Amino acid sequence: MLAGTTALLVATGSTTALAQPATPAAPATTTPSAPASVPDPAPADTPEAAADPCAVPTTTPAPTTTTAPPTTTTTPGSPCETTPPAAPDPATPTPTPAAEALPAQAPDTPRPDTSRTDAAPAPAPAPAPAQAPPAETVPPLPAELRPAPPAADQPVPPDDPALSSKTAEPDPDWHPTENPKSTLVPGQMRSDREEVPAPFTKEDADKAEIAEARLRSSRSLTASRCQVYWPSWFEVCGAIRDKYNALGGPASFLSYPTSGNIINPGGTGERVTFLNGPIYWSAATGAHPVVNSFLNRWGIHGYEAGWLGYPTTDEIVHADAVGRHQEFQNGAIYVAFQNAVGSAIRNGPLRDKWNSVGAETPGSLLGYPIQDQIPLPDGQGQMDRFERGVIYWHPTHGAHPVTGRILSLWSLAGYEQGEYGYPTSDNDIVVGEPGSTIQLYQRGSIYLGSNHALRAISELQDPSQGFKSYDTGIHPNYCEFPDPANSPTCPVDNSQFGTVSDPTGAAAQENLQVASATSAYFTEVGAPTAKAMFDHYYGATGTDYALGTSVLDSWFVDDHHNYPNDATGSPSVIADSQKALGVAGAITEADNRGQAVKVIYDSPWMPAAGYQQDHVQSLGHYSVSPTIAVIAHPGGPGNHQIQWRQEVHMYDVYDFAKPTGEYGNMAQAAVENARQGYLLGLARNFLVYGSGSVQTWSGVA
């Protein structure tokens, strides 16, 4: 879209910006343009009228004019067009051209006096020898008006064309025209000596050279407000010119101008468009370029007329060398990486809270914003989402970040519209419990222990509210420390897969024979799940394996295991222990608050084992986390109305990397063969997981 806008702009001679505000701009030449200093409350007068580059002296033949290209090309308008250009888009005003001064005509040749009759006729005078016109000398461009070398940190255009404002490459070899011609002299223009860079034409370049000569020949050369950058004939004036020169002029990321100074709607400031984006100026903020993802996001919010207002800085490169941001009058836009769409955040309490927890800096709580700050449906609050969490703000409760497992549960409950309401505190450290935190909400709290156990309490607004589908579905993340059963090998490690050489293939053949016998053995002893998992292991895909609910329900009733002298618990005993803890806690909370509450408890991962053959041969030792949700009403001892739901979750890393000797007798040979199959590249470790069905109960306790 931006490239097409440039095509229309340069073809028609329009002063429409690449980043066009929603409201039409006033013509540039009918209003003052930006001053040379920043800020200057009173822009100077309109530049003086330009000489007509197409005027031809009467004593010389007129040069052949070149027909202007059609308006669909990507070139600025020709100074010598023989056909009128197409009318511009009504929303894109074209500046009224300045009056063009015609050069003075050459004087007539002197003729002999024929009024005397007494004198002999005078011989016809010999023709005067042809003389070359005097050399034209134009002062050079002062050093203070020559663009500076571009800075090392340049904006990086995204690969996505929808986010990039780049349409042309910078010109690192650009230099002002030496001794420019003030009129069109065929064969002697700079365009006759140098190639004209696209998208400009020879006519554009000649018009630019003539404009350069006029500006440099003015009496107040160093104080001149405006400047032309050959081959673009647009005059860039005032503070925007100064900024453009400071960035590097045509050698900068902006490349060449595609408009003169344009007055923004309402007269609040000015802009000049360039091939790769605009520079915006206001008296309060100065002149700053806005390009690529920043321009895209700023445009979504209405440019300078939107809530962000004018830019107050250029792009600011962050210490992480990945992200950038740009400040505006009422907020900022952050871009986390090259192809990021950018995110806008308002100045105010939400941004203040983000800054207080480290903003986007490496290792901070939240990281970069990944969406715009938005209002909430209640018309009161605001929120913003970041790489590692969110911040919610309410005028009564303030701004608070929510992250991790607490955010997972709160989001399942419906955020601020759910049973917990808005957060009313940060996630604060629990006194006397190092590593444990608690976050308070309008109607409850969520606690996270140092061992990753979670306890959530919500005050029921309606006693018949009941349970939610997510209440018992939560559990600690797989492989989350501490986890005695799986921490040594979790996450799944396949780094030694295929590290043992087998040049002849004999070892692999022998290994597969033993593996086939092991698989057959599981069938013989009635261990179908053990066989399925073993075959998945030798399938060598390494993909996760989900155990069915019915299988786990049959295993989770095991109330003991067959590992002598092992302190590991059985799944049934672990679940009953968690159930008792949840019911007791819910009764206490209901009595303390004097109203019905719902309490959710999940445990940290705990090691478990069973005694059924398929159970033992499938998993051995594994990890379980029972989650219970209890609704309790206040009452006297032994007279509390109670409802509970419980679901037991498990996971394990299926591998054969445990110490030798654990399995005993002939099973050890099968274990060692399976381990060798992994090293030979025949089998792969994988994650196995699942959950039992939801168990329910109601009564009085």
Protein described:
It is built from 13 helices and 25 strands. With 701 residues, the chain is an alpha+beta fold. The strands form five sheets. Strands 15, 16, 17, 18, 19, 20, 21, 22, 23, 24 and 25 form an eleven-stranded mixed beta sheet that branches. A four-stranded antiparallel beta sheet has the order 3-4-5-6, with helices on one face. Strands 7-8-9-10 form a four-stranded antiparallel beta sheet, covered by helices on one side. The protein starts with a helix and ends with a strand.
For the largest beta-sheet, the strand count, sense and barrel status come to: 11 strands, mixed
Shape, principal axes of CA atoms: elongated
Number of helices: 13
Which structural category do the helix and sheet elements fall into? alpha+beta
pLDDT < 50 runs, ≥5 residues: 1-132
Q: Using only CA atoms, what is the Rg?
A: 40 Å
Overall mean pLDDT: 82
Using DSSP, what is the number of strands? Answer: 25
Strand content: 15-25%
Approximate helicity band: 10-25%
| Termini separation | 69 Å
Biased composition (Pro residues): 85-96, 122-160
Biased composition (Low complexity): 15-37, 45-84, 97-108
Biased composition (Basic and acidic residues): 168-178, 190-200
Pfam families: LGFP (PF08310)
